[in-house]
Automatic annotation (TrEMBL):
GO terms for molecular function: iron ion binding; iron-sulfur cluster binding. It comes from the Archaea. It holds the Pfam family NifU. SUPFAM superfamilies: Fe-S cluster assembly (FSCA) domain-like. Residues 19-75 form the NIF system FeS cluster assembly NifU C-terminal domain. GO terms for biological process: iron-sulfur cluster assembly. This is NIF system FeS cluster assembly NifU C-terminal domain-containing protein. Residues 94-108 have a biased composition (Basic and acidic residues). InterPro entries: FSCA_dom_sf, NIF_FeS_clus_asmbl_NifU_C. It comes from Halorubrum halodurans.
Amino acid sequence: MSDESLAERIETWMVGQMPIIQMHGGTSVVREADPETGEVVVELGGGCAGCGVSNVTAENIRRDLITDFEAVTDVTVRVPSSGDQGASTVEGGRGGELRHETDASNHF
């Protein structure tokens, strides 16, 4: 097995599989990736805030992570419902800290 953590492998996957997020001014960050429980939490920000297709993107991320990573069994993708922004971005649209409006599992 690789020395990379599950979170790092998912971040690398996001860069390669979801470039559309960055191309549209969005950001993404893996908040949790627990190889023991299989739970992953990804947050979208930036241009994803209020985007009409962000729910489709979120569903694609959920489905593909479960399909592509044997260790992943449950994925939550939080999508901003308003102008929340990631603090800074790096390669592939990875985001910084996002501010939560609510604790709902799919929107903040």
